[in-house]
Structure formats: C-alpha cells, structure tokens
Amino acid sequence: MRAAVLVFPGSNCDRDMALALERAGADVSMVWHKETALPDGVDVVGVPGGFSYGDYLRCGAIAANSPICRSLAAHVERGGYAFGICNGFQVLTEMRLLPGALRRNAGLKYICRNVGLRVETRDSAFTSGYEVGQEISVPIAHHDGNYFVDPDTLNLLETSGRIAFRYTDNPNGSLGDIAGVLSENRRVLGMMPHPERASEPSQGGTDGAAFFDGLLGALAEA
Amino acid sequence: MKARVHVMLKNGVLDPQGEAVRHALGALGFDGVEGVRQGKVIELDLAEGTSEAAVHDMCEKLLANTVIESYTVEMS
C-alpha cells in the first residue's frame, strides 16, 4: 500500500503522520507542495496538521491552491483515497473536497489536550478499525476547529451516515459535536483530532492506531 | 487602480471574535453596543483595465470562503 503525505511550509504533523502510516505497514512518500504530481501508484494521500503558510488569509486557504493540491483534487476525482487531519481537514474543506468550514473555536482559545470521540460509522476505510459507538481518546491541538456547515448539508451528512466522529464533550463549538466527516463516496475524510499522535504507547495513548490499521486493512482488501 | 474587498462572516454564522469584542466594550463601560461583527479588508493594487468581475472571481476562488463568508468589492 502506497501512501503520500503532503508537506507545506508550516506543516508540523507530517512526520508523525508518516510514522503512523509506516507503523501500520504503508510505504510512505513525503511530497513537497511545489511538486505537480503525486508519486505513481499512490493509494492514499494524507494532508497533515500544522500551520501551512502561517495560516495566512484563512487556515488552509493558500495550501488548497498549491500545485500539489491540483494533483490531489485529480486523485480524488479518480476515486482515490485521501484524509486530512487538523490543518489537513481545513485544507480539504477549502478545496471543497469536504463540505463545511472550520471557524475560530467558540471559546477563542487554542486548545491542546486529549478529547473523547465517539465513532459514528465504520462504513469507511478510515473508521473500519473501530466499532460504531466506540469511545476513544485522541488529542486535539487547534485554534480553528469549530465546524460549521449549512443546515441542509448538515441534514444530508446526518442522514447519509457521513459523520465519522463526534466529540463526547464538545470542546470548540462545532455544530452537531462534529469532529470528522466523510465525502459522498466515503473515500475522503477530514477530522480535527490527531489519531497519528495516539498511535504508539510512547505518545501516551494508542486509540488512534486503529485508524491507520483499519485504513491499511481496508485498502489491502480493496 | 485599486479594489478594496471587505470580507465578513455571513449573517447567521456566529462570530466568536466579534462577541468577545462586544463583551470587552461592555466591560469598558460602553453601553448600548448590541452587536459586533469582525471582518477583514483586503486592498488590491490592480493593473489598469482589470475588471470588477475579475475581482469577484478572486473573491470566489481565494479571498473569501463563501461557505461561511460574504464579501463586497469597491473599485476606485
């Protein structure tokens, strides 16, 4: 299984994401934002957390228009798998590959701590390693994670089972306690919490490991 | 020529920063501030002949996130 992790100026979770994918068995390439093509044969693209382009203009807005993101859009258009964590989620919403937007946290503070998440569906490669209703503990570290989406789209997400994770105790004001969502074809996922920072015991928790193990397992079958 | 773009959160999208400013004004004793909305202003220096339609296109593609923001354009 071949994975690519995009790297923007200001990305800071790219190495963690690559290590979590490697631990699960993926062959990982790091891809600089100025590249115009993804490596041949990439199965899944990860968009990491951090502060791409210093969060200038809006979080993720400049990265969404970078050369490599045109290739990412084409990869997704072809039915390829992609996921974005934290700033990566912001990039995917700015690219309109996922619905909604991430606003400033309701409490205006940057929040960096573990939060509880409830797994809402296992009908996606990304969540197939969990059970529906399972509660996991994963860190968040963001200032702009307050998920917003218009009421019609929220209703669509709810009724089509496209909410992947919800906060058990909403830390940031997100509509519907939403922590992560899926695309219509369920092959693109964005989430604010960081499973890659809870993937081995030395990180203080391993509840995120099943995200990557499930993903690798599902793609091996696909 | 110049264009000035105002970007604001849409009505109905809670603006936590504006709310914080409103509370701070109240704490300073400024009564009667019933709402604060915070946005941003982007000034563009444009080559002569750049159309207002082009600036709108810039707003749609980059300067505003129309999921949560609205924008207005002033040409001068």
From TrEMBL, chain A:
The active site is at C86, H194, E196. InterPro entries: Class_I_gatase-like, PRibForGlyAmidine_synth_PurQ. The keyword Zinc does not apply. Its EC number is 6.3.5.3, 3.5.1.2. GO terms for cellular component: cytoplasm. Keywords: ATP-binding, Cytoplasm, Glutamine amidotransferase, Hydrolase, Ligase, Nucleotide-binding, Purine biosynthesis. It catalyses: L-glutamine + H2O = L-glutamate + NH4(+); N(2)-formyl-N(1)-(5-phospho-beta-D-ribosyl)glycinamide + L-glutamine + ATP + H2O = 2-formamido-N(1)-(5-O-phospho-beta-D-ribosyl)acetamidine + L-glutamate + ADP + phosphate + H(+). One of its GO terms (molecular function) is phosphoribosylformylglycinamidine synthase activity. It is found in: Cytoplasm. It comes from the Bacteria. Pfam families: GATase_5. GO terms for biological process: 'de novo' IMP biosynthetic process. SUPFAM superfamilies: Class I glutamine amidotransferase-like. Its main location: cytoplasm. Pathway: Purine metabolism; IMP biosynthesis via de novo pathway; 5-amino-1-(5-phospho-D-ribosyl)imidazole from N(2)-formyl-N(1)-(5-phospho-D-ribosyl)glycinamide: step 1/2. HAMAP family: PurQ (MF_00421). Part of the FGAM synthase complex composed of 1 PurL, 1 PurQ and 2 PurS subunits. Part of the phosphoribosylformylglycinamidine synthase complex involved in the purines biosynthetic pathway. Catalyzes the ATP-dependent conversion of formylglycinamide ribonucleotide (FGAR) and glutamine to yield formylglycinamidine ribonucleotide (FGAM) and glutamate. The FGAM synthase complex is composed of three subunits. PurQ produces an ammonia molecule by converting glutamine to glutamate. PurL transfers the ammonia molecule to FGAR to form FGAM in an ATP-dependent manner. This is Phosphoribosylformylglycinamidine synthase subunit PurQ.
TrEMBL record, chain B:
Its EC number is 6.3.5.3. Pfam families: PurS. Gene3D superfamilies: Phosphoribosylformylglycinamidine synthase subunit PurS. Its main location: cytoplasm. It catalyses: N(2)-formyl-N(1)-(5-phospho-beta-D-ribosyl)glycinamide + L-glutamine + ATP + H2O = 2-formamido-N(1)-(5-O-phospho-beta-D-ribosyl)acetamidine + L-glutamate + ADP + phosphate + H(+). Keywords: ATP-binding, Cytoplasm, Ligase, Nucleotide-binding, Purine biosynthesis. GO terms for cellular component: cytoplasm. It comes from the Bacteria. Transmembrane segments: none annotated. GO terms for molecular function: ATP binding; phosphoribosylformylglycinamidine synthase activity. Pathway: Purine metabolism; IMP biosynthesis via de novo pathway; 5-amino-1-(5-phospho-D-ribosyl)imidazole from N(2)-formyl-N(1)-(5-phospho-D-ribosyl)glycinamide: step 1/2. It is found in: Cytoplasm. It is an enzyme of class 6 (ligase). One of its GO terms (biological process) is 'de novo' IMP biosynthetic process. Part of the phosphoribosylformylglycinamidine synthase complex involved in the purines biosynthetic pathway. Catalyzes the ATP-dependent conversion of formylglycinamide ribonucleotide (FGAR) and glutamine to yield formylglycinamidine ribonucleotide (FGAM) and glutamate. The FGAM synthase complex is composed of three subunits. PurQ produces an ammonia molecule by converting glutamine to glutamate. PurL transfers the ammonia molecule to FGAR to form FGAM in an ATP-dependent manner. Belongs to the PurS family. Part of the FGAM synthase complex composed of 1 PurL, 1 PurQ and 2 PurS subunits. NCBIfam families: phosphoribosylformylglycinamidine synthase subunit PurS (TIGR00302), PRK05974.1 (NF004630). This is Phosphoribosylformylglycinamidine synthase subunit PurS. The gene is purS.
